[in-house]
Design goal:
Structural class: alpha/beta
Strand content: 5-15%
CATH class of the largest domain: Alpha Beta
Length: 390
């Protein structure tokens, strides 16, 4: 089965630029697609200094939905928005004042990968951050979810030395140009060794094996001690015969669901997710993180099955549960649920069902306007047209 590779390089074009992210793309593009993916064949999508977060989300969503292994190579710049202080990947038009509207929220990356299996999903990251973003990652880590292996670094801005370059990603690309892709943990160690002198102990290292819980990174001036190696299984090692890294596929419901979707067995995939949701509700309650996770999985499964009505209804329900549990209307999870409900509502072809769900969506948009300007007006306008139709 062919793999999928997304090459994303993004940084502001103005005075706030910390890194010339796009300069690494020619080096990555010189690597054979199969080597980038680690599969026999691969499809490669390249995004250089994109302008709109929604455009990036569309490409990211398509890549995450593709069957087979997925590798994301992301070089860019992290910034915190002024309102919620959450990390975003700055895009070409991003400024310090417009992060919330012109940058890609990092939690969108995590959300899009949640249906995938950690056994075949990986992120290779070379990110630079201003003082606030760097401190955020140092204290809290960079949450990419539990469904992907993550390798890379977060470097501080170059300050008066000018615009930095994605040296880690260039090292990765140079190593891959040999025509061989070693296990990512080994590739990561080799790339970090190449830039060790230049990084001078300032970088935060991201090395999380697939399925591991997010944890704060560690600086490069700290050697890889035995406890760290034990916490990050497989780092710098070749997998031994018969050994499985982090995930036993047969015990991972995400892997089983992903396989069912890829085979077109949508009913089976939903049944598996429903079983997990019921277990989570029974053990922890409907507003628990686990129960909401599986409710969101089922909403996405409905989307993959082409059932926009069921998907929209599920996302509306998720948003309602989150709000009833006291989550803020501008929290990332609530906004994401309403945005996804809105997106699926626009795909409903049955007028009666569109009117029914449109009324519920309009009421919800009054509480959760979201980040896209005019979202409420869009719902109200389309709803008026639906209600005026015979």
């Amino acid at each position: 089965m062919p793999g999928t590779v997304l090459l994303l390089a993004a940084s502001p074009l103005g005075r706030g630029r910390l890194v010339d992210a796009a300069c690494v793309l020619p080096v990555l593009a010189a690597v054979a697609p199969a080597v980038l993916s680690g599969t026999d064949t691969a499809n490669v999508v390249e995004l250089a200094d994109p302008l709109e977060p929604q455009a990036v989300l569309t490409r990211l969503r398509a890549a995450a939905a593709a069957p087979g292994p997925l590798t994301l190579y992301i070089a860019g710049q992290l910034q915190l928005d002024r309102r919620q202080r959450l990390p975003h990947l700055a895009l070409a038009r991003t400024t310090a004042a417009t992060v919330r509207y012109t940058a890609l929220p990092w939690h969108w990356v995590r959300e899009e990968l949640r249906l995938r299996s950690a056994a075949d999903t990986a992120l290779v990251l070379d990110l630079h951050g201003d003082a606030e973003a760097w401190q955020y990652v140092a204290e809290r880590g960079l949450d990419c979810g539990a469904n992907a292996a993550v390798y890379g670094r977060v470097a501080p801005g170059a300050g008066r030395r000018g615009v930095a370059e994605p040296a880690y990603m260039k090292a990765v690309a140079t190593l891959l140009r040999s025509g061989h892709r070693p296990p990512l943990a080994q590739l990561h160690e080799q790339a970090m060794a190449r830039i060790a002198e230049a990084s001078a102990g300032r970088d935060l290292v991201l090395a999380i094996a697939g399925g591991s819980a997010p944890r704060p990174p560690f600086p490069t001036d700290q050697p890889l001690s035995q406890p760290v190696r034990q916490a990050l299984p497989g780092l710098g090692q070749q997998p031994s015969a018969g050994r499985r890294d982090s995930v036993l596929v047969g015990q991972d419901p995400h892997a089983a669901i992903s396989a069912a979707v890829q085979d077109g067995r949508h009913g089976e995939a939903d049944a598996l997710a429903a079983q997990q949701e019921q277990l989570a509700v029974g053990a922890q309650g409907p507003a628990s993180d686990a129960a909401l996770h599986w409710a969101e999985v089922r909403a996405d499964l409905a989307m993959f099955a082409g059932d926009a009505v069921r998907s929209c209804r599920a996302w509306l329900a998720v948003a309602g549960v989150r709000l009833a549990a006291g989550q803020a209307a501008d929290s990332p999870a609530v906004e994401a649920a309403v945005d996804r409900a809105h997106h699926q509502w626009g795909r409903i072809t049955d007028a009666a069902q569109a009117r029914e769900l449109g009324s519920a969506l309009a009421e919800l948009r009054l509480r959760v306007p979201g980040r896209r300007q005019g979202a409420l007006e869009n719902v109200q306008r389309q709803l008026r047209q639906l209600q005026a139709a015979p």
